[in-house]
Design goal:
The chain is an alpha/beta fold. The protein has helices at 12-24, 47-52, 67-76, 91-96, 99-118, 155-174, 196-206, 225-238, 255-269, 300-306, 314-327, 329-337, 339-347, and strands spanning 3-7, 30-35, 57-61, 81-84, 125-131, 178-183, 185-187, 210-213, 219-224, 244-247, 252-254, 282-285. Bound molecules: nicotinamide-adenine-dinucleotide and thymidine-5'-diphosphate. Residues 91, 133, 185, 195-196, 199, 211-213, 218, 220, 255, 288 line the site of thymidine-5'-diphosphate.
Amino acid sequence: MKNLLVTGGCGFIGTNFIRHLLEESDFAGKIINVDSLTYAANPENLSDIETNFPDRYLFIRADICNRESIAEIFDKQQIDSICHFAAESHVDRSIVKPDTFIQTNIIGTFNLLELVRERSEQIRLFHHISTDEVFGSLGNDGFFTEQTSYKPNNPYSASKAASDHLVRAYHKTYGISVTISNCSNNYGPYQFPEKLIPLMIINALKGKPLPVYGDGRNIRDWLFVRDHCTAIWKIMKEGRKGETYNIGGNNELENIKLVEMVCDILDEFEKRPGNKSRRELITFVKDRPGHDRRYAIDSAKLQQELKWEPEEFFESGIRKTIKWYLQNQKWVDRVNTGEYQEWVKEHYHYR
Ligand code: NAD
Ligand code: TYD
């Protein structure tokens, strides 16, 4: 992999992945990061990478829904492999307005696949990043395996499911070289503060209510983002073509327990005025429609076949994450107010 196209590299996981590849892994090629810079992106995440790796990192602002501009990038940059993160990623937004989810997640992925199909000699790998949410909801028992049937319950997961099916079909029909990974909920630095963990950290710091949906007993299976990145890179290097791998850290938690944990760690790091517990801020609110009850991943295939293991324990990962948000409040303010969007408009022009 000499010229690796990373789509959506200015978002949460993409940023962590690019950092991992250039700073920590054995990847020796060049990364071309293509991102349209939606509200969820922040190109400042990688400004030091731009400085430190001038020959091995290039950012281009472009929309994967615009096939012509992406085709130009494929050819000019002599792309030989792809890691596809770009997506609309927030379930609540998909419920209010699904349009962009259909465009980016389905049509955008389809565009990339078509471009790969036209260049099947040139492209060695298309790795597709997906989610465990495509499998729908579990009851009290059981795990999602690679054999679990798809039953998405909201527009986000349905759009991701559609993209997974397209990737698989392009492998079966046209023989293009693909791998797919379906991962559980990630947490860590650079996550946009609309997702559960960063939202709770930021609100708790500001003394704002902490909105917990429904009875708070929904379960998510949390994985530290760096562990997701090591798994992706392993699959890209060693995974069997045409195969899907589930990624998860065996770390199921009820939302309410997680929010209480965030409150307690914050109280320990930074006392609330009056020394009151931040748990007092927890507010149960109306449930999300179609809210999946439980996700839990069985990643035995990845662990046995490719010898991957997560490194971070949840107790240490959540502390690192909370510390990162405490130390990067300027980042939070800038993404929250959209201040950096002004900067984006001045500095980056669409291809
Ligand atoms: P994110 O919302 O933080 O980042 C998405 C990035 O994609 C942003 O930088 C955005 O600007 C870019 N993007 C969106 N539309 C685009 C378009 N049309 N053209 C080019 N770029 C575009 O999301 P994330 O949490 O980093 O998720 C990345 C991928 O991982 C997604 O495919 C998501 O489905 C998947 N995933 C996420 C999680 C999670 O817990 N966050 C878990 C499993 C899988
Ligand atoms: P989220 O971070 O949106 O991830 P996903 O929906 O993709 O799993 O939500 C994680 C869990 O937290 C999910 O069960 C919904 C719940 N949640 C709340 O209770 N309150 C909130 O404000 C948010 C954003 C999520």
